[in-house]
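Handout, section B. The chain below has 686 residues.
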Amino acid sequence: MIRPRLLALRSSKVMRRSNQSTEAPHSFNEIRQMIPTAVKRSPSDLLSALSSTVGKDTTAPHFQFIDDPSMIPSTLVTRKSYYMAKEMGKRAARQLATEWPTLFAFDRDEPRLEVFRPQGNPDPLQMEPTEESLVSLIESRCVKDACMLYERMRSDGVDISDHAKDSLFALTSFYNNEDVPLSEVEEWHGLRNIALIEKTPWTTVSVADLVYESLPPSSLRKSILISALCKHSSPSSIKRARELYEELKKEDKSSIPSRTYAAIISTSTWRNAIVSDGEKRGRWKGPYQEILSTMKDAGVRPEESVWNALMQSASKIPVYKDRMNALRSTMGEMITCGEKGSLSVFNSLLTGLEDDKEGDKEADKEKKIVNSISVLVEILNELEKIESIEIVTSNDSNFFCSAMYIARKAGNLPLARRIVSLYESKKNTVKLMSLSNEGAFYSSFLLLCSIQVQSIDEFYKMYIYHVPRVVGVSKGLCQTVFTRLEVLLPPLPPLHPSSPISLSQATPHWPLLHRLIDDCISSRLITDIYISNSIRIALINTPLQSLSPSERDDYSSLIPRLVSIWIEFSRFTGHMQRLQTKLSPFSIQISECSLLLMRVGEREKAWHLLEMLCEEGNTHGEDATISAQGTVKAASMNELLDDAIRRGHAENAATCIQLISSTDVNKQRLEQMTNTVISRYGRKGD
């Protein structure tokens, strides 16, 4: 009791000295210590809280390419190649560790990480033929190994429970007695995303059939077999699936799951049933009326797969009017059942409205765009109202690509902005694949913005935000941006000076032009005939007087760099000839390169480049670096000739006249040029 009294006395003295309070202090026994209740948190809550405080670096590449800045890819092809190279390296290391575990016998690191000590799958021919071994292979989804072990056990007369047989039957039926395809591999993301989905016809007299025959018949087993026969469809398997479906309908309709109905619809055509009585003859009836009525009588509620299968079946109708009616009927049935629909259903609806079929008429094209836009607006209105967009099927993300394609085709920028805003919103959990679909999605949006956005500064910000972080550099994108910069892109370069290239008089936006040229260099589009021609025209059209001092320095350093790149690619001869891009008067336009070098003060390099055209060894032979086809550009040569005359360089003026004479057949014009040079130097006494 002494200590509490001392504490109370000390606190009272302090309070009296400060004159802050005249009240007596509370005793120690009256002070209560409140311990807060523990907050339940998930393992990722801390990471989510930290992530909310960090912004998005719009200049950084994909996280898989941050190891080496010099290897950051700029095109979609290199992006996939680099990602797959890293992943294949990991797979190779995993395979080595699996096949030669003795190489890592002295690995005693703690804690022991099983991912660095992979174990290979057991050999089914060496395993003990027991039900436990079979179940372990089934759980590991080793389909072929499980089939081999089952055949061993079957030949040895080993008893297998019906439960194990059911698991084996479901596995072998789903994968058609083959191993899990690469498109479903969980561990290797890149391999799964780029793998092609191959559909194989149903294998007859297989392990799945043997297991099915050894089990007593049931509605669940028949439903599984029907779904498998429709998934791996062939004419014989579809016929067998319909026979089993009719048997199930007679036995017990309520036992048929919704996915089985979806499987039957996926192998049906909309014109399966046509009413043939009187006035209704030839009217589209479709499979959905019979199947939905059967499901209603059985009390089975249609799932998402049923509506998706109906939409896809209706989308295959060749005539647009009938296809529109079928899609409208399916959508009406779905709304009547109280279903809101998933993104995959909406994607099938948009695809059916927009796709071009052989039976479509020319007058239906405008109707397609109008109907697609109206339906898309209604879908966006509904999606913007809901609190969260959850993923239902693996094809849900395709909705955003289809929606953006329709918006771009219609040239509707506000609608495209709504689609991007919905996709990037926090409530959307459906995301596109980073290395494929996402780039195509944003590429369509950027191409639309290049035409519709009025402010060039705003478009420049959008360009540097997306390229090459999300959108890969491509020839089509570069051509579109050059057009946006009001630089003329001729379909073919002129072969004769009588048809010169007309240059745009507008001043290009230098920051965007500089960034675009850098992207062309990094993606090797610099060697493309049309892109390189567009670059030179844009640089020629850029007046140095309109640039700031720093931009003028960038311009002066960029020209020699470009010319050096083109010359370097022209020197790839011998075993590297497949990479060679020869200099040519019309593809690389030596005269234009010389003119650009002249403008930035590199006169010696400019005249040396022109003199290369006069040397026969550069245009003929195995080590030729200049194409013998094409002609020099008259407008550029005239400007170079005027500069040589003005500066009093007789040899350079003679070189210009020699090159012009090889293409210009106007003798009077050539004599006038020659007399001008002679008279100019004659006055100087040369």
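Note. The CA atoms of residues 397 and 432 lie 6 Å apart. Compare this with the example in section A.
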